[in-house]
Write a structure and sequence with these properties.
Distance between the termini: 61 Å
Oligomer: single chain
CATH class of the largest domain: Alpha Beta
Largest sheet: 4 strands, antiparallel
Number of helices: 7
CATH topology of the largest domain: Beta-Lactamase
Number of strands: 4
Strand order of the largest sheet: 1-4-3-2
Structural class: alpha+beta
Radius of gyration: 41 Å
CATH architecture of the largest domain: 2-Layer Sandwich
Shape: rod-shaped
Helix content: 55-70%
């Protein structure tokens, strides 16, 4: 195997190992960053919902409560306000969702589905559980969900959800008396669930990975080409010429030009040493060829 082939074999082997390790590390980091981005989005959605609920309780409800004697205004209900606010978001981003999934809701649209019921029951069974996060498949792709418990901590909530007799008549006229009652203080009745699509951040991570690996491959390919050019020009060609001169001299050719050297690198030092050795060899051979002088 020629020197160039050996050199390229080693370089390519090192390159493939380095490329594999780099691919694994970069893919892991990009996927982790994508997931962190999704979790951050879910957290922001949850905080936005909580802010909407707080705003409704502190500023909207006090304004509308005096007008609820004859007409029930759902805008005073924090869950309704938060859900409605996110409906405007869904008009532009249909894959994002927010729901206050409840086992026994007043508004039928808040009734928990099977998988949401499992989350609510997990909170009901473990009072210390504050948050649940997971990934589920949806018709539009994989989605990350973040859930937090809805616990009755404000006694005022029971004025509408304890018994139908205690509930405002205006509310009963809007939603009936069959659902949304029997709640108790400090009871977990549902869960706030936000869902964030994973497709876009994962796709961004995949494109970044492909771009990075393609760039890295191009840089390594350029380095290999540059190293081969330098190796051939600085090492292979001079050594090949010296080998040709040495072969010709060894066969007795006397008209072979000397190897011209420039610079002070290792190849130049080798060339000068080779030239001195050639001259010494030619001088020794010429001395051996002179006839011996006989003294009389």
């Amino acid at each position: 195997m020629k020197l160039v082939s050996k050199f390229n074999s080693v370089i390519i082997a090192v390159f493939l190992v380095g490329l594999g390790v780099t691919a694994w590390i970069s893919w892991t980091i990009l996927q982790s960053n994508a997931r962190n981005e999704i979790v951050e989005r879910a957290g922001l959605m949850m905080e936005a919902a909580l802010a909407t609920r707080s705003y409704t309780i502190e500023e909207i409800a006090p304004l509308l409560r005096p007008h609820m004697a004859d007409t029930f205004h759902p805008q005073t209900v924090p869950a309704y306000a938060a859900t409605q606010a996110f409906e405007f978001l869904r008009a532009q981003h249909a894959q994002y969702s927010y729901k206050e999934a409840t086992l026994n809701p007043t508004n039928p649209r808040d009734r928990a589905t099977d998988w949401e019921s499992d989350i609510v029951n997990a909170f009901r069974n473990d009072g210390a559980l504050k948050e649940i996060m997971g990934v589920r498949d949806t018709p539009t792709g994989r989605s990350l969900y973040l859930a937090r418990p809805i616990r009755i901590t404000n006694p005022q909530c029971l004025s509408c959800h304890s018994t139908p007799e205690a509930a405002p008549q205006a509310m009963l006229a809007s939603y009936g008396s069959a659902n949304g009652f029997g709640w108790q203080l400090d009871e977990v009745v549902g869960a706030q669930v936000v869902s964030v699509p994973m497709a876009v951040p994962i796709a961004h991570a995949h494109r970044a990975f492909v771009t990075f690996m393609a760039t890295l491959f191009g840089v390594f390919a350029l380095i290999i080409v540059a190293l081969n050019v330098m190796l051939r020009r600085i090492v292979i060609n001079p050594v090949t010429r010296m080998a040709g001169i040495a072969d010709s001299v060894s066969k007795g050719a006397g008209d072979v030009p000397e190897f011209a050297t420039e610079g002070n690198d290792e190849i130049a030092l080798l060339a000068r040493s080779f030239t001195r050795m050639r001259r010494s060899t030619e001088k020794a051979i010429s001395m051996l060829r002179k006839p011996a002088t006989v003294k009389g």
